[in-house]
Prior knowledge:
The chain is mainly beta. It has two domains: 4-92, Beta Barrel (Elongation Factor Tu (Ef-tu), domain 3), CATH 2.40.30; 103-172, SH3 type barrels (Roll), CATH 2.30.30. The chain has three helices and twelve strands, in the order ββαβββαβαββββββ. It has helices at 32-37, 75-78, 103-106; strands at 7-17, 22-27, 40-44, 50-61, 64-69, 85-89, 110-113, 118-127, 132-138, 141-146, 152-156, 161-164. The chain has a six-stranded antiparallel β-barrel. Strands 10-9-8-7-12-11 form a six-stranded mixed sheet, with no helix packed on it. A hairpin with a 4-residue loop joins β7 and β8. It is elongated, with a radius of gyration of 19 Å. It starts with 6 loop residues before the first strand and ends in a 9-residue tail after the last strand.
Amino acid sequence: MPESDALIPVGKIIGAHGIRGQVRVYSYSGNLESLRAARSVVLKSPQGDMSEVALKSVIPHSGKIILGLKDFNDINQVLPLVGSEVCLLRSQLPEPEKDEYYWRDLIGLEVVTTDGAVIGSLVDIFETGSNDVYVVRSGEREYLIPAVASVISNVDLESGKMTITPLEGLLDL
Length: 173
């Protein structure tokens, strides 16, 4: 089984689909191509248990993804999988474009302003539709930083640092 550091979560199983052992997956990225190219995925249960499962089919359906899993042919076999994350190996994913990053690579970065003030650590990311929002925490204080080019000045994964140019009042909230 691969180390969890080599895994990238790409979605979460939210339910069974029909009675023939298919599952409905909420996609974190909406990118079907990586899943379609994969022959298998790693399922990570909420308890942290991991298992590799071969894929039979990958079908878009009403904004979700329907996965057919090899050797799962019955609803009762897939119901225990609900809540599990669907992960791909890092090597199964395409390299991100310039100025694009996998969320997993950003979580944990130290966030500083262009003036050198340390804001905190990036602890979570969520989608809003128009852009992602970075949740940066320093002790009890939490900042919501919009992931837009006018705010994010630099991301340096090697040094573990993200530099921002905060909009007026952004850090006062």
